[in-house]
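Q: Predict the assembly, please.
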Amino acid sequence: DTAVSQTPKYLVTQMGNDKSIKCEQNLGHDTMYWYKQDSKKFLKIMFSYNNKELIINETVPNRFSPKSPDKAHLNLHINSLELGDSAVYFCASSQDRPPTFGSGTRLTVV
Amino acid sequence: AQRVTQPEKLLSVFKGAPVELKCNYSYSGSPELFWYVQYSRQRLQLLLRHISRESIKGFTADLNKGETSFHLKKPFAQEEDSAMYYCALCGSEKLVFGKGMKLTVNP
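A: Predicted assembly structure:
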């Protein structure tokens, strides 16, 4: 069973479109995260939710909106996609520390 | 503020050579430090955490509070160790990563 699963694994879309990436964890963890890994492999936290409540919101454009319908899910919706949004997005979850990561979603904006 | 510095971006060695991947941190509280590894196009996996003081896949890392370092070491590198390695620090609510280092072990 996959502990932290993200869908889709690959996403190619045009500039200006709106897209969502879904994340689900079956570990019973209270905290979930979204990280962005850019072309230089640099990892940066974007959001963190604890029990469906937003606890970390780094400097991320308003076009990015996380949604947590329940504590097992944290979806990432992106409006008006830009070329610079192309990256690998990793979901993660934790109960205490350290987080367990999903396999990533490679987003390519053309 | 939490900060993790991995001063080298690339390290290339031959199989059987020792490796040391450097990590320095700054954090005002008591840090929790980790090493994550990412094999080609795979998910990030936890390799080591400083509190467990264990050896995984032959790797060890010791927290040196005086030097604020948590260097990752392996005495004899293997080809399968080729990957991206990230040092990470957990303080308050978030995990902060260093910029990563690509290790290449040549045959």
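The mean pLDDT of chain A is 91. Chain A is about 0% helix and 55% strand.
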